[in-house]
Each structure stands twice: as C-alpha cells, then as structure tokens.
Amino acid sequence: MSEAGPPDASGNAFRSRGAASRELSLPSRVRAAIRRGSDRALGADVAWSAAFVAITVTLLASQRCAVSYPTFSAGDVAPADVLAHTDIEVVDSALTEPRRQQARDRVAEVYVHDLEHERRVARELAALFEEGRAALPRIPRQAGEPHSASRAALADRIGEAALQVLLDHGFAPELETAITSTLMEVMGQGVVSNKALLERSTSVVLVHVPGHREEHLQDYSKILDLTRAREVARSAVQTRLDLPPSQRKALAELAALFVDANVHYDHGTTYARREAAANSVSPVVIKIPSGMVLVKGGERITPEVLERLDTARKASPLRLGLAEFLGLGVLVLLFAFFLYRYTRHHQRHFKKVKNLHSLLVAVILATLLLGDALLWFVRRIIDNLAFPFDQVELYTYLIPVGAGSILVALLANGRIAMVYSAFTAVLLGALTGWNFYHAAWALLTQWAGIYAISTYRERAALLRAGLVVGGAGAVTTLVIEILQGTLEPLGRSLYAAGLAFLGGAVGVGLLISFALPMFEGLFNVLTDIRLLELSNVNSPLISQLAVRAPGSYNHSLVVATLAEEAAKAIRANSLLCRVAAFYHDIGKIKKPEYYVENMRGSNPHDRLAPSMSALIIASHVKDGVQLAREAGLPQQIIDIIPEHHGTRLMSFFYERARKTADPALGPVKEEDYRYPGPKPQTKEAAIFMLADGVEAAARTLDPPTPNHLRELIERISNAIVLDGQLDQCDMTFADLHRIQEAFLRTLVAFHHQRVDYPGFEFGRPRREPGEEPRSELSETSSERGAETADGPRAVVGRSDRPA
Asked: FRET pair for 276, CA 20 to 30 Å: which of 49, 210, 269, 537?
C-alpha cells in the first residue's frame, strides 16, 4: 500500500477510456479537447515563470519602485530627514505667487455694454402701446366699471396713474415717441446697476456687443448709475411733454419703469484673462542637488513642503536606469525561482491541483494587476476632492487582497495559501513604493481570510469570511496609522479604516463569487463548493439511478455513509467520498436488471455464458465513465468510477467458467474476468473499493452481530490487500485499521439487533432458547444458493457478484 509505478492494467484502462471517448457526443469531445489544450498550457511552468517576471518587472518599474518618498499630510511632523534621491528643480511658491498676483492685478476688469438692450426696451414699450390701442374699445374709462379685466391687466404692468393718462389720450403716438426717445437717449449713454463698484477700479475694459469692440475706459462720467438714469428719464419726460403736471408725473414714472441697466460686470472673462496673465509669468525655480535635505526631522509639514515633496516624486525618472533595472530583474527572478521550487517540491505529494505553479502565478499577477488598475483609476478621479478623500495612498487599503488568499485556500489548502500570501504581500508593498506597512497590512489581511475560510460548507461562509477580512484590515490599518504617527487627523485614519473594511467585506465576496467558478473549471479543481452543488440527489443522473435501478441507488446511499465515515477517520476528503458515492454506480442505469439488487424474479445470468456475464457486469464501468463525461462531472469523480473496482477478479463467473470450460480449448484466462482498472490511485478511491465490498457482503449476514461484521470487514480488507489492489495509493496499514473500525461502527449502527415480535417471523426458522444464531460466514455455497454466488469467497467484494 505504498506508492508504485503505473498500474499493471493500465493498458486495459487506457483502451477502455479510448473506447468511451469515441462514443462521446460532440460537445463532450470538444470539452475534452479544450481540457487537453488547457492542461498543456497550464503545465508550461517555464512560460508561466517568464510571464511572472515580465509582468512584475513592468509593474514595479512603471511605479518607480526604486524611488520612495514618505507621504505626509499638512500639520504632520517629519520623523526623520527626507533627502532628494536625484537632482530636482523645485518651484519656489513664496517668490512665484506674488509675481503672478501682480500680473493678475494689472489686468483690468471687463464690463459688457449691451447695445441691443435699449432697442429691446423700446420694442417692449411699442408693443405696450399697440396692445393698448387694440384694447381701447374693451377698456372702461374708469376703474371699477364692468368688464375691467383688460384694464386691470395693463394697470398691473404700468401702474394705474400712467394707464389713466394713456387712456385719456388714446395711447397717442406722440406720447409713445416722446417716451421712447427719452429711453434711447438715457440708455444710450450706458447704465450700470451699481456705479460705486465700477468706480473702485482705475480703469476697465468696456466690450460693446454685438461686435465685441473693446474700449479702455478710465472716465466713468458718461455712464449713469441705474438710480440716476431713472431720475434723468423722469426729468426729460416732464420737460418734453406739454401736459398737466399730474399727467406728466405719471408718464415720467412710466419712462423710469422701463429704464434698465445695459452695462454688466463680466466675471468669467475677467477671471480667465487674469489667470492667463498669471500663468504667463515664469515660475521661480530652485535647483536642489541629489542628497540635499528636503525636509528636516522634526519639521512641521506645511503646504509648501508638501508641494516640494510632490515635485520630487514627479521629478523622479519614469524609467529606471540600467543598473536599477537589472537589480529589479534579479530580485523578481529570485521570487520566480523560489515560487517554482516551492510548488515543484510541494507537488510531489499534493494531488488536488495538478498545475499548482500556474495557479499561484495567475492569482498573484491578477492581484497585482487589479491593485495597479485600482490605484491608476483613483489617481484620475480624486484630484478635486477634499481632504482626506484626495489622499492616494489611503486607497491602497481598498484593494481586495484577501480574495487571492481565500481563492488559493479553497482551490488548494490553507498551508499553500499562507505561502502565497507572503509572496503577494511583499510584491504589493513594492508596488506601492516599497512600503513596509502596506506589505504587513496585506500579509495580515490575507492570513485573516485564510483563517475565516477554513471551511466552506454553508451559504454564510463567504459572507463571514468577507466580514472577517474587512474587520482585520480595518484594525490593522488603524494600528499602522498609529505606528506611522499619522493617526491625527482622526478623520483621515477612520477613512482609511473604512476603505479597508469596504475592500474586504464587499470586494472579497464579489471577486470570489466571480473568480472561483472560472478557476475551478480552468484548473480542474474540485472544491467543496462544487461538491456541495453535486451533492443534490435531485440531479438528472441520480434521479435516473433512483428510478431505473432503485437497489443500486439505495446501495449508493449506504456506501456514501460508510465512505464518508472512513474518510473522516483517516482525514481524507470526506465530502468527496460522500458525493462520489452517489455517482460511482451510475453505469448500472443502462442494464439495471443484471445486478442482484435490482432483480425482480429470475436471474438473467442463468441463461448466459460466464464470459458474457462478465462482460455485462464490467460494462457498467465504461458506461458510468461515459455518462459522467456526458454530464460534465469533475474528473476526480469520474476517476473513482473505474478505480473503485480496480482490477479485481469477478470470481463467481471465473469459477463458473472453469467448471464449465471445455478442456480442449485450453485453460480459462483469469485476466478475462478482471475489471479493466486502473487500481485506486488515491485514498478516496481505496476507501470506495473497501466500502463497496463491505456494504454488499454485509447484506448477506444473518444475524449481523458486531463480531460477525468485524470478521467480515477483515476478510474483505485482507483479500483486497493480498490481491494487490491498494499498491498504487498512499494508504498505510494504520489507515486501513482506522477504516475498518469506522466501517464497524457504521455497520453496527445500521444493523442493530431488534427483538422478534411474536407472530411476525414470516417463515424464518425459529431458534430454540439458548441456540446460537447461524452465520452465513460458516455456510457453504450450496446452502446460500445463487444469491450470494460464491459462498465464503464472496467476501473479496461485491464486484464478483452478478448479483
């Protein structure tokens, strides 16, 4: 029961698989071809290592990872001197800003003179007179008379006194001309709403529109204030009209009502011209040589210092020099080498993921690319946000780095995920400016995710893992803020913790839900989540088995319990054993009547030659593999279908063939009566072989006492071991002993002793008081008849029973 070479019957196994493949449908063959191609691509470890080096070096080089300046906020105290890494030129804002302000001040304010406005006012007044003339027949001469709606409407617009004068004169054109000419004269000079604001400037630019003719104006005497313009209009109307004083006063108020400002301050144009003038001033530049102190330790960080540091970051070379690039390349090569060596060493005994190296490389690169894309997007949208929302470095905590570790833990195991987390944390810290605190945060957050997802057999597990990752990330962020001395202002630290919680609680769940099915299919990994989906007994294959072969279905349920308990005893994959049990005999769907648990009446094997019976019995393996592939079942479950029979001998038909064979044809070949194999390659397949034989034989015991069950289990196990069926799996004798004990506990629970109820013996021979029960283990084959098929030798397993 130790590891050995290829199975002895591998040729038969391969021929069986090839025959089954030729009978598959077109979609199944396409899926198989895609799987073979993807396996070859995922197995190209050199190509994956090259991709890892190329992408990682590109990401780190583009982030100027060789140059790092600390990140501060206004009011912080620098813990140590910050030196310039290269020669830089820094704009001296203290000298540049006054010069730019002087340039702004030299730009005159811009006012707009709307020449069309007085014409619009004149047209409005003319429209009023036309309306009045047209409505004269309907307007009563005195207020309050019937049908006064038209009068009231006009009175609301121009006043009752002016309306009465116009009605008395029938809206005479002379009055219209006098008022209109007054308005044109007054507004033609230019009217501003507040002349005091205009006069505070020594000069302004007056833009006449339409035409955009500009006039530099220093004398404002011709421009009237709105209040003064209305007074001038009143006086002009009273002087111009030859009417009674009361009527002239009313019309003067009408003219003043229509006077409006047509000179306005243009804030937008003024601001644009002043900023253009300021930008035209060349900044005052100070050259800082490499090694010079940018910020002294203990110095309070001011906006000028922040600007200096930002300039230093931007002045850092976008590309590394040759020496730096080579150093970075060597560093990443070492990462790639040790990642490859770890996976190759671990792969010797780890069979769950066939292409572990490509899996880890793919998840690491996906995490780094996602983080880089997130930070790239953040830099482009937060420039105009207020503090602390404009702090780019805080958004590192938003990266859902815990998703990668959880994904690896689900696809592989927690130990591999811990190693993966170490690689990812160091690279993420390098991606964010070789920040040790970011690397520590990433490592602890990922480890929290691995702890939280230690088991995933319920719906709330993923939500719980996300909350744990988010909570751990938030707490770690606050601790890092304390260690960095940036806890104040508190709002900044709380915002950083909130981002970390959001990235874990929301981002991790979303990414895992999207990525896990894709990685399961790509790497052909059977996770607990997929097993839980397959455990639904209402699936089409299991439903067909229950309807067409109910005995085989019931047998599968019992084997599922036996295999699950045995797997728990030796710490194998108990969920895989339980789910695979539902599918291990699905090949019996095609010819269910040839198996004893499904027989109703005569035994069809009595009419067949032993060789034909053996072919029919063995065919359910090939049929099961074909049905499983058509249904798209995972390869791990498909492998158990032939492996749980291995290359065992169908002894009943073999012995029967020997007894009935013609000596002239030569001896009967034993290999013609063996299953095609291969032998069990995993502990789970070995458990199935043992459970299948034990469950079938246990049905023949009467009574099934603990001692009889123990003897039965040991006989079957010993027969399987002596037949060499467990030579190619890594099961030990200690494992075998624990499996036997688990079988015994389970079968005793199934076949517990019941008392005989008087009158319900149903033909069973009665025992005298004190008489020992008879065990089928002591019966001869003639006593047991066709049902047990082979007497005491039937304990080698269920596979040799036609029945």
From this structure: 210
* Whole-number pLDDT of residue 757: 55
* Contact in structure between 435 and 428 (CB atoms under 8 Å): no
Angle ∠(619,623,625) on CA atoms, nearest 5: 120
Task: Specify whether 637 is located in the same domain as 782.
Answer: yes
* CA distances to 700, 751, 756 from 761, in Å: 18, 18, 7
Half-sphere exposure of 801 (CA within 13 A, CB side): 30
Is 294 part of a structural domain of the chain?
Answer: no
Q: Tell me: the pLDDT tens digits for 647-678?
A: 998 888 888 888 887 777 778 888 888 998 89
Give the whole-angstrom CA distance, residue 551 versus residue 592.
9
Q: What's the one-letter identity of residue 786? A: A
- Range of weakest confidence among 81-90, 186-195, 276-285: 81-90
Count the domains in the chain.
3
pLDDT at 504 over 70: yes
Same domain, 520 and 625: no
| Each residue's pLDDT tens digit, 212-230 | 899 998 988 889 999 999 9
**Helix, strand, coil percentages for the chain (3-state, nearest 5):** 65, 5, 30
pLDDT class of 16 with cuts at 50, 70, 90? very low
Q: Inform me whether the pLDDT recorded for 380 exceeds 80.
A: yes
Judge if 507 and 611 occupy the same domain: no
Q: Does 497 share its domain with 635?
A: no
Out of 493, 525, 557, a domain closes at 525
Domain range for 694: 602-755+774-800
Same domain, 487 and 396: yes
Degrees (nearest 5) of the Cα angle 172, 173, 175? 70
> Does the residue 309 lie in any domain?
no
787/639 same-domain check? yes
Confidence label for 170 from pLDDT (cuts 50, 70 and 90): confident
Residue 319 pLDDT grade (very low, low, confident, very high; cuts 50, 70, 90): low
Shared domain for 131 and 268, answered yes or no, is yes
Question: Where residue 775 falls among pLDDT bands split at 50, 70, 90?
Answer: very low
Considering the domain boundaries, does residue 35 fall inside one?
Answer: no
Whole-number average pLDDT of the chain: 82
3-state secondary structure of 213: strand
Distance CA 140, CA 146 (A): 7
Residue 345 pLDDT > 80, yes or no?
A: yes
The verdict on whether omega for the bond into residue 758 sits within 30 degrees of 0, i.e. cis, is no
Intra-chain end-to-end CA distance of the chain, in Å = 29
Which of 71 and 589 is assigned the larger pLDDT? Answer: 589
Pairing mode, strands 285-288 and 88-91: antiparallel
Does 687 fall in a domain? yes
**Which residues lie across from 265 on neighbouring strands?**
111
Residue 498 and residue 641 in one domain: no
The span from the CA of 157 to the CA of 155, in Å, is 5
Q: Which residues contact 388 (CB under 8 A, 6 or more apart)?
A: 73, 394, 489, 491, 492, 495, 496
- Distance (Å, whole) CA 530 – CA 532: 5
CA 111 vs CA 171, 190, 259, 261, 605: distances in Å: 37, 11, 19, 12, 110
Boundary-marking domain end, from 525, 547, 564? 525
* Cβ atoms of 112 and 426 closer than 8 Å: no
Q: Is the pLDDT of residue 12 over 60?
A: no
Whether 381 has a pLDDT exceeding 90, the answer reads no
Residue from 527, 634, 583, 533 nearest 35 by CA = 634
Q: Where are the beta strands (DSSP E) in 84-182?
A: 88-91, 109-114
Instruction: Find out whether 608 and 666 touch, Cβ atoms under 8 Å.
Output: no
